[in-house]
């Protein structure tokens, strides 16, 4: 039996565009001899639709589109994800479902039982869980059709399960002999390998093939890597989709063989591919063509610009240098060199006169008060005003350039360097920024070596260095990872690394104190297991010390 995986990049709410992809991939699969093709979770409406499913018109259009797809794919059976109306009075009006389309009609539907509510997921908010699931027969096999999380509760793999029900176990006990899983499983560093181990364990435990098709592309902060898999009953991968790109993968379950498409290797390469894909889709799906990046001569803005060029092409990226009173000639030169190396338009707009004007206006009010961080922050806020003016004039979107380390401790200026529509590297720690910059240069040397080698500085006062305020980034990033991603206490962090407890407590206090800044920041692309954003929901007005 020849089956295909339609690893597509849907856009939330783009019913006609998503349907066109499903029909096109189905026709290609049919032409290649496939009798069945699988598409990702909620592929008709796009994932995650969030509160759009509360709109009856959205649900109706999604159901109409499913019928239309069925009529346009008569020569091949199609499994795709959609929203269906809930049958029980649960308080939720819809379910997250999969439909089997055969000969112009919907022949079978299956709805998701396990609705995740951790990290970026909040499906219990929107969907009713299915009360039960059934098998369906196809080409002599009893298919256990599951949706994403339904396959993530195997007691033989997880030391601590999140749910008491295991949909796969129940379906296989009822006579299933093949697991089909349609997914929208977001990427984070290490996720692809983890997912592969989990699905392999599932195949071995049930002595049955496991077929998983995963969504690809960026939707808001989430990036989906694709990496669809087919694993035989012996735990061998017999087919695999590429990562971070649409793909059509064919395989033969009876012949125990399939297409193994090229994979991106190395953590930096995968993270970079994810950021490029997330940037491209966010900009284009939001209706923009051009992005603006403030180029300071520093490594963060250099990496952001390199990602933007890889995502959109140099003709769609504008670099803006905005030297202030403390900007070094070397930084200005590095920004110009970067723009030239990337082949992007570059404009130089000095903020020196603007800064002096601000100070002159404020001088009577500030009389008798010493200069402090206030004067420092006026500079990035002046730059932010210029960036947004340019964005308005050119119909562009500003990409903010702050990294996860700075955002974590609030080493950034609200309404200044934080302005923008997308925070490209806000989930990239500073130490990884350097690793990614070196990876970029290994492909094509575009980031000036001086940018990589010079000590990081905001250049908001004479001879300023980041280490004036913060510990080395190696130390800072270790503390932040333990506190933000691993939820360790200051005492545990200090003991684990041999750091001074007072230092750890100071950094932790900075993280907690700056929650108000992060909740006003532009959406950021998630590439770690725990990113700032709607996957980390903490109160602002709180008093808690761990």
Brief summary of the model shown:
The protein has 546 residues and is an alpha/beta fold.
What report would you give on this structure?
The protein has helices spanning 15-31, 56-72, 123-126, 167-173, 191-206, 267-285, 299-312, 329-342, 352-366, 373-394, 404-409, 430-443, 449-453, 473-485, 490-497, 501-513, 515-518; strands spanning 2-7, 36-38, 77-85, 94-102, 105-111, 136-138, 141-147, 178-183, 210-214, 216-219, 222-225, 229-231, 237-240, 247-252, 257-258, 291-294, 317-321, 345-348, 397-400, 422-423. With 546 residues, the protein is of the alpha/beta class. It folds into 2 domains: 2-256, Carbon-nitrogen hydrolase (Nitrilase/N-carbamoyl-D-aminoacid amidohydrolase), CATH 3.60.110.10; 270-463, 3-Layer(aba) Sandwich (Rossmann fold), CATH 3.40.50.620. Helix 6 packs across helix 7. The model has no long low-confidence stretch (mean pLDDT 95).
Write the layout of secondary structure elements.
Elements: E1 2-7, H1 15-31, E2 36-38, H2 56-72, E3 77-85, E4 94-102, E5 105-111, H3 123-126, E6 136-138, E7 141-147, H4 167-173, E8 178-183, H5 191-206, E9 210-214, E10 216-219, E11 222-225, E12 229-231, E13 237-240, E14 247-252, E15 257-258, H6 267-285, E16 291-294, H7 299-312, E17 317-321, H8 329-342, E18 345-348, H9 352-366, H10 373-394, E19 397-400, H11 404-409, E20 422-423, H12 430-443, H13 449-453, H14 473-485, H15 490-497, H16 501-513, H17 515-518
Parallel strand pairs: 1-2, 2-3, 7-8, 8-9, 16-17, 16-19, 17-18, 19-20
Antiparallel strand pairs: 1-14, 3-4, 4-5, 6-7, 9-12, 10-11, 12-13, 14-15
Helix pairs in contact: 1-2, 6-7, 6-12, 7-8, 7-12, 9-10, 14-15, 14-16, 15-16
């Amino acid at each position: 039996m020849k089956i295909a995986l339609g690893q597509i990049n849907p856009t939330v709410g783009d019913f006609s565009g998503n349907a066109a992809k499903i029909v096109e991939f189905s026709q290609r699969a049919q032409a290649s001899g496939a009798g069945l093709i699988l598409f990702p979770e909620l592929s008709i409406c796009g994932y995650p639709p969030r509160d759009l499913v509360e709109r009856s018109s959205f649900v109706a259009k999604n159901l109409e589109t499913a019928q239309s797809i069925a009529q346009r794919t008569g020569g091949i059976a199609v499994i795709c994800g959609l929203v269906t109306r809930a049958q029980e009075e649960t308080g939720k009006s819809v379910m997250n479902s999969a439909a089997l389309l055969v000969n112009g009609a919907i022949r079978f539907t299956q709805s998701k039982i396990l609705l995740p509510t951790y990290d970026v997921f909040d499906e219990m908010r929107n969907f009713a869980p299915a009360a039960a699931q059934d098998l369906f027969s196809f080409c002599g096999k009893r298919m256990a059709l599951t949706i994403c999380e339904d396959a993530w509760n195997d007691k033989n793999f997880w030391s601590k399960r999140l749910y008491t029900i295991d949909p796969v176990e129940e379906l296989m006990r009822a006579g299933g002999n093949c697991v089909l899983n349609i997914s929208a499983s977001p990427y984070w560093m290490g996720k692809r390998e983890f997912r592969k181990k989990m699905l392999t364990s599932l195949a071995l435990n049930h002595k049955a093939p496991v077929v998983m098709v995963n969504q690809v592309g960026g939707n808001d902060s989430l990036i989906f890597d694709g990496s669809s898999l087919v694993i035989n009953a012996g735990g061998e991968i017999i087919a695999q989709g590429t990562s971070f790109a649409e793909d059509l993968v064919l395989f033969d379950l009876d012949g125990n063989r399939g297409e193994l498409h090229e994979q991106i290797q190395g953590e930096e390469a995968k993270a970079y591919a994810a950021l490029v894909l997330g940037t491209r889709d966010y900009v284009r799906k939001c209706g923009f063509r051009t992005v603006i990046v403030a180029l300071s001569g520093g490594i963060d803005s250099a990496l952001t610009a390199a990602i933007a060029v890889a995502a959109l092409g140099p003709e769609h990226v504008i670099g803006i240098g905005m030297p202030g009173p403390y900007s070094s000639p070397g930084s200005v030169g590095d920004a110009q060199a970067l723009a030239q190396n990337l082949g992007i338009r570059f404009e130089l707009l000095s903020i020196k006169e603007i800064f002096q004007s601000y100070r002159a206006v404020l001088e009577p009010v500030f009389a008798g008060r010493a200069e402090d961080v206030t004067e420092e922050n006026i500079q990035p806020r002046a730059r932010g005003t210029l960036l947004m003016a340019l964005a308005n004039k050119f119909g562009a979107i500003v990409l903010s350039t702050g990294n996860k380390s700075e955002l974590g401790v609030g080493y950034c200026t609200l309404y200044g360097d934080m302005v923008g529509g997308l925070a490209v590297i806000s989930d990239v720690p500073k130490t990884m920024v350097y690793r990614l910059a070196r990876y970029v240069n290994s492909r094509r040397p575009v980031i000036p070596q001086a940018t990589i080698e010079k000590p990081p500085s905001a250049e908001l006062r004479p001879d300023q260095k980041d280490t004036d305020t913060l510990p080395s980034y190696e130390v800072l990033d270790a503390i932040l990872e333990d506190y933000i991603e691993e939820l360790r206490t200051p005492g545990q962090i200090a003991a684990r690394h041999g750091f001074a407890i007072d230092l750890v407590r100071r950094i932790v206090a900075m993280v907690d104190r700056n929650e108000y800044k992060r909740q006003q920041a532009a959406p950021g692309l998630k590439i770690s297991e725990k990113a700032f954003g709607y996957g980390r929901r903490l109160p602002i007005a709180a008093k808690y010390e761990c």
